[in-house]
Amino acid sequence: MKTRTLTPDLEIPYLGFGTYLIADGDAAAVVRAAIAAGYRHIDTAEGYQNESGVGAGIKQAFESQGLARSDLFVTTKLWPGNPAWGQAAKTTESTVASLDQSLARLGLDYVDLYLIHAPFDRDARLAQWRGLVELKRQGKARAIGVSNFSIHHLEELKAAGLPVPVANQIELHPWSQKPALVRYLNDNRITPIAYSSLVPLSTWRDAAGQGSAKTDAMRAEGEHEDAPFKVMARKYGVSEAQVLLRWAIQKGYPVLPKSTHPERIRRNAEVFGFDIDDEDMAAIEKMDRGDGVAWATGDPTKAS
Ligand SMILES: NC(=O)c1ccc[n+]([C@@H]2O[C@H](COP(=O)([O-])OP(=O)(O)OC[C@H]3O[C@@H](n4cnc5c(N)ncnc54)[C@H](OP(=O)(O)O)[C@@H]3O)[C@@H](O)[C@H]2O)c1
Fold it and tell me: Which protein residues are within 6 Å of ligand 1, measured from CB?
């Protein structure tokens, strides 16, 4: 399994498995299938309400495949609470309690990476980050980071004299490349983790009720025979999804493809046997359209 160094003593596998929109009751079987297909990095969150199912799938995989806890990299995320949506913002204390609850649901003693899911509340962000620092000290999170943070939010942590996060999980794909933020992350040794890599596919969150903010025009774009990722997929003898995932890995971003279909789960994992050439990487660089679409409610980095 190819990895990127997250901290001096922790490697993060480039290939992760995403679990957003997988119901708790389905998660055990899907996660077990992903681990059987070779994924060694699982991404969940308090907010996905599926940590129990994900944990059950991990436990079943340990037993059926003889894996040890150290064979798997597990990420979960603090739901910080958003006062703008009528939720109480978590404090340092309730942040510490939240990971204890996540660990109980997951059936684990520690996670490899714990993230603040989004920077909702200005006053609460620093308190929550202090909670994550404490959880790292207690050994309940081997590494701590953030998600959906902008340069401004990261500078805020630095200005408070707090440790810098080791990762920022953000929407990253050819249509949302965020060059200034990625440059900042690389300059500050913060690993960018890519989510929603498959947005350019016409099938991305196309099931009813999945809250996709994609427009019909965007969907139609993926359907033409000469759509750029179709052309590249034919050239390399892979699927369009594999091209999108490979692009991210060549940029140095761990990826988190989600699927509930066994065949897609298996093929999405086959991303190390080919290289996108320089010409195609340069063509993809010109496809950037700015902000992402994954949060149907809007860009959380602009929530405060
Ligand atoms: N930190 C955050 O705020 C945040 C936000 C969004 C996502 N994430 C994380 O990142 C993960 C991935 O992002 P995501 O779930 O938004 O989207 P994604 O993994 O980019 O795409 C998933 C969508 O693409 C479809 N799909 C998957 N493989 C396919 C293939 N080979 N061919 C055609 N369609 C395919 C899936 O449908 P089927 O399931 O029907 O196959 C689903 O609709 C999440 O699950 C979550 O763990 C984090």
Answer: 18-20, 43, 117, 147-148, 169, 195-198, 201, 203-205, 239, 241, 256-261, 264, 267-268, 294
